[in-house]
Amino acid sequence: MGLNDPQWGNRNGGGPPDLEEVLRKLNARISSLFGGIGRRQKTAGGGGQAPQFKGGSLGLLVIIGLLIWLASGFYIVDASQRGVVLRFGKYLEATQPGPRWHLPFPIETVEVVNLSQVRTVEVGYRDNVRNKMLKESLMLTDDENIVDIQFAVQYFLKDPAEYLFNNRMPDESVRQAAETAIREVVGKSKMDYVLYEGREQVAAAATKLMQDIMDRYKSGIVISKLTMQNAQPPEQVQAAFDDAVKAGQDRERQKNEGQAYANDVIPRASGTAARLMQEADGYKQSVIANAEGDASRFKQILVEYEKAPAVTRERMFLDMQQQVLSNVSKVLVDQKNGNSLLYLPLDKLIESTRASTTAEAAATAAASAAATASENGTTPRPRESGLTRDRETR
């Protein structure tokens, strides 16, 4: 009844509408819809009748409750999720993304599992690398050294059914598998390899071994990445280990410096040796040629000597005297056959003095060159003998 109804306020002395009449009309409509029969009972001391809800109202409540119960079976699975339907606690099926329905509780239940979520497990520390868990982080290497390793493992799910039914504590299973794998890899490696040279290789090998372990467990877990947060010797021996590392670095530096010096000296020494070998070979060829020439000249002189021994002997004597006296600065005067007027070849004497001075300077320069060569590790070229020089002059 609306407020604009002219009958409003004219009933029951202008008061509000009768509630009993409203309830009676509502009961009649429900009975006509669901076939219920409204039973009436006379009220004590009055001529009116009040409605009494029995079969129709109870059926309506049952139907409404049934509809609500059936509606509770609807659920929605996101694109990154999978639904696992359980019937009386037993695995029934895995549902794909989208709106889904299952028999409501307690017949069937559904577990929604996120497959794309990346989960992280920390080994050797909790929340911060400074908050160490020494029981997990201390490991023994192949060369019987102890290393302190903290790392994090990231994983996601590939099979929701295996994840739910084969894992009681998934994070703890991953942590134990990670610790087992890393201990096996570290136990087969040297300390320097684990700390410096092969950290990435150690992480890769441990990841593969962890995945094999999780696959054998049928855990439905895929290991995504193993990240080394920290790898160092234990704090108790850190100072001594740093000293050993510095000593090793100094050794490598000195080896590199020595190798650089060797790379600089050896080529120069090899070049000097090759040059000396070539000079020695040239000197050898020169001596051999001079000796062969002297031998040939001696044979020719011998032939002439056999023809005229006296003349050849005198000629050889004069040649030798000329050769010897040409290198001296003295003047020989024949007083018996000479006259009172002496002629001295001053120009020849001056030239000979200059020549001797030049020879001395050349000898000094050669001595200083020989000293310099000996300091540099080279060998000066051997000088020819005076006899060889005389033979060449002749």
Q: How is the secondary structure organized here?
A:
Layout: H1 19-34, E1 39-42, E2 49-52, H2 55-71, E3 74-77, E4 81-87, E5 90-95, E6 98-101, E7 108-114, E8 119-123, E9 125-126, E10 128-132, H3 134-137, E11 138-140, E12 146-157, H4 160-165, H5 170-187, H6 191-197, H7 199-217, E13 221-232, H8 238-307, H9 309-325, H10 346-375, H11 386-393
Antiparallel strand pairs: 1-2, 3-6, 4-5, 4-7, 8-12, 9-10, 11-12, 12-13
Helix pairs in contact: 1-2, 5-7, 8-9
Helicity, as a percent range: 40-55%
- Cα-based radius of gyration, to the nearest Å: 60 Å
What structural class is derived from the secondary structure elements? alpha+beta
Strand content: 15-25%
Q: What's the order of the H and E elements?
A: HEEHEEEEEEEEHEEHHHHEHHHH
- CATH class category of one domain: Alpha Beta
Name of the CATH architecture of one domain = 2-Layer Sandwich
Low-confidence stretches: 1-14, 36-53, 378-394
How would you characterize the largest beta sheet? 4 strands, antiparallel
SS element count, helices: 11
Describe the structure.
- The protein has 394 residues and is of the alpha+beta class.
- Among the domains are: 12-31 and 52-71, no CATH class; 72-114, no CATH class; 119-233, Band 7 domain (Tetrahydropterin Synthase, Chain A), CATH 3.30.479; 240-307.
- It contains eleven helices and 13 strands.
- The chain has helices at 19-34, 55-71, 134-137, 160-165, 170-187, 191-197, 199-217, 238-307, 309-325, 346-375, 386-393; strands at 39-42, 49-52, 74-77, 81-87, 90-95, 98-101, 108-114, 119-123, 125-126, 128-132, 138-140, 146-157, 221-232.
- Strand 1 (39-42) and strand 2 (49-52) form a beta hairpin.
